[in-house]
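It is worth pausing here to work through a concrete case rather than discussing structure prediction in the abstract. The textbook approach is simple: state the sequence, then state the predicted structure, then interpret. We follow exactly that order.
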Amino acid sequence: MEKVYFNKGDVIVEEGTISDGAYIIESGKVEVFKKLPNGQSQQIARLDKNDIFGEMGLIDQLPRSATVVALEDCCISIMTPDNFNSLAKRNPKALMPVLKILAKRLRGTLKIIEKVEGHKSNSNAMVAGNI
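Step two, the predicted structure:
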């Protein structure tokens, strides 16, 4: 895997760009943002040493779903799809950390959806109660 250095404030990946692999933070901290329909950005995570981001791109190679900016100087290892596929063939068990992260983030997303849907249901019930 290649190690790349980023300075504080550098955009490491940008939402909408083509995925080129996953990023493992060796040192430093990053912030993950999602663009909102109104043009604003919403922080969705802060990550630091040993955290990984961009892992979805290893699997689907679709455009990035968020922007990641260095909060401080960072050293980051990049796992390309070729690295990932080679590792999958040689040592499939080594992929478990990436798969666990994907599962954890999916569960987190589902919880957010449940809260939003629950809020909608409560709002609808309150509106119906006022009729």
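Step three, interpretation. The chain has one domain: 2-129. The helical segments are 55-60, 81-90, 96-129.
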